[in-house]
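The aim of this short unit is practical: by the end, you should be able to scan a pair of folded records and say something sensible about each. We start with the first protein, listed as its amino acid sequence and then its structure tokens.
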Amino acid sequence: MFDLVGKLQSKSLEETVQKETITSVLFHQTQECVDLVDEAFRFENINAPSMLSNRDAAIQQHVRESRVEIVIVELNLSQNVTKDMERISHLLPNSASVIVIGSEDAISTIRNLKEMGFYYVFWPITKQELIDFVRNVNSNRQRNSGLGKDRTAKRVGIWGTKGGVGATMLTAEIAFELSNLQKSSSLIIDHDFRGGNLDIFLGIKQFEKKHISRASLASSIDATYASGLVKKVNDMLAFISLESNELNELELKDYIRTLADQLAGQYNFILEDLSRANNSKQDLDYIANAYDVVVLLVEPTVSSVREAKRTLRALEIANSDARYLVVLNYTVSEKAASVSESEVKQFLGRDVDIVFPNEPRLNKLILDDKHIYQHDYPVSQSLHCLTSALLGQPENSDKVSWIHRLLKRGN
């Protein structure tokens, strides 16, 4: 006998509507926003986002431990939406599309967030408006269009005004602090194609640079190929270091810049070690337009300060849009320095942004595979100041003043 009821039940089970899957997370400030987002997603049969309080620690942990397609950030209680998103942008993976919900009704807010690669939704919003917006963002992701598709790493060049001023050490320490303390994914690019000590400062044993042949120039360079040349230090930090017996330095520079462009979408920061022995006028012309921040590393000597002034002038002539941070690194004790901080300031015609006091324990730290950021030395505080400046955090100035006072007490 034909079992009509059983047949209908079986068909009903087979045709059960599947939930629309969008992997998302909401970092919220108010329960009202939580309720609206939850109801909107569930009503449309979409997997509800993970719901977490809008705190830096929660953002750091969740977005790094989970694969998220869409991040929703509620800033209804924010006094300045743009500044708050600038503050947390380095915590968000470039692969995720970011929707900001806020009650700040200003064209400038929309424009500023768009420049950062973020969508903006004005609160209050209806459930249907929110879902339509989320689906549109998800559709843009599928087509690789819309905001976020071009969100790339902030590129930082650490420019040493002379050899031995500490550019490689500082590059490594900034990278460790960004990746381990700030939870920002970082890539170091080594511009020393003949040797260098980056592996020592990173604590990498039995390291060998990636060898590049001339045939490599004919290869199709995409993000997958470029990723194959990267060596991981930890989950949040990697570096790329090349050498070649066939390519000259100019060819290698062009090659590694192409790799950096391909890798920019995978990291929050790209840090480039530009030691003075390896840079040139052509490098300055390039970084004037390609970099977001240039850290100009100076030691308290006449030759170093003169080179710093020439560099600043060259960047000015090139109409650079980069932000400059002048860092005075005391490679010797302050009493043994040939020029003072005030003389550096007078000669450059601008303030020194960060002062790194001389640290006699530095060599032992390096030999013991330890790092400045892990300690509470005065030089460690300077490193925290510099990292804060790179992130655009406002508390940097107070810390710098504290270090200046500490240096003066030491004399």
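Turning to the second protein, read its sequence before its tokens, just as you did above.
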Amino acid sequence: MNSIADLSAASTAQLVEAAAVIATHLAQRAAPDSGSVCMELAEELATAIDQAEYALAGLIAVVDRSGEPKHWGLSSTQAWLRCRMGMREGRAKERITLARQLPRLHRVNAQMATGDLSYGYAATVADAVHRLSDEDCARAEDIFLAAAGEGLSAGKVARLGAKIHDLVVERNGDDKPPEDVRRGYQRSWLAVSRSLDGGCYVKGWLNPEDTALLDGTLAPLAKPAGSDDRRDLAERTAAALSTVLSGGHKDTRITVIADLDTLTGGDTPGRLRDGTPIPAAQVRRIALNAGVSPLILGPDHVPLYLGHAVRIASSGQRRVLETLYDTCAVQGCEVPGLLCEVDHVDGWALGNSPTDIDKLALCCGWHNRWKHTHPDQIQITKTDEGRYRYRALPPDGIARSRRDRPIDQAANPWHDDHLAA
């Protein structure tokens, strides 16, 4: 495509706007009828997307170093990618790892920039070297690129990375094969050894299923507690594990929401907290075989008032809030309600918010503190069901994201009128 505009003189912001306009128009075009033409176009487009991923990695690296997401009410770079850009957890981690490792991977950096190395290979190499020293990283990079040049798939390159890591461990003095190799990769295991001071060392390996459970439970609690939190990830993870263990988890509890009419023979189904419907007959069976804790609501669905005399919410209030809130009240935050703190909507310290159920919400620990220190960056609304929804606003003086407002085609210098095919 020949462009009337001088691309070399355009700023990064202008190029991003141009790419956004082109992508918008491309998404609205129907694919050609010819399979061979589509194959050729798809391969060319994939290369362009890989180069865009390289540019994205550079932007993410700056955001990650600067800590900018915390000014927007986001606890980490990963939370920013999930909440603002809609990425899955795994993809967000992958992109952060690539952004952090590219400065050490000089050949990968250069080849990805020119489109000679795909995003898939680059991300695989970045993940394989993040535990290696700079010297070992440089040697491993040559091996990985040679393997990719010989046609090895990204999956085989990843397995090669695991072998290289094992060799590095063996070279550094550990003659025994790694524990996970000796035991195999099918079953999870944990080894706990006591220290003389009463503590213990924990070592182990979890299969993918158990890893998903661990991440889902500990990752939300292992976020930094604020800008002054000096703990590293390992220390925060240990604290998160202690939080879960101290919570007990001794009893299995399920919350079923149902009308009194359903319990006395009606046909109206109940539901779980996530909205899953439960047939009326099954609701009654659950009630007969489990302890029932009724939550009595007033005509406006506003129960359990404690006023200003008590600051800490009661267990009964928490049960109600856990029924109302599946996750943290902050829009985009996925910390489960069971792991959140009770938040006074208008701020207890200000004397405006009594400990009444219609003035309480569930907030994760990080956002609870952030809301208190950034009151001007929180927008609070209340739904018809009585739930509060918090939205983190940009810092003062910063415009909303371009993706939140329509593009003014007439004012855009990269509109089709300025481009000639």
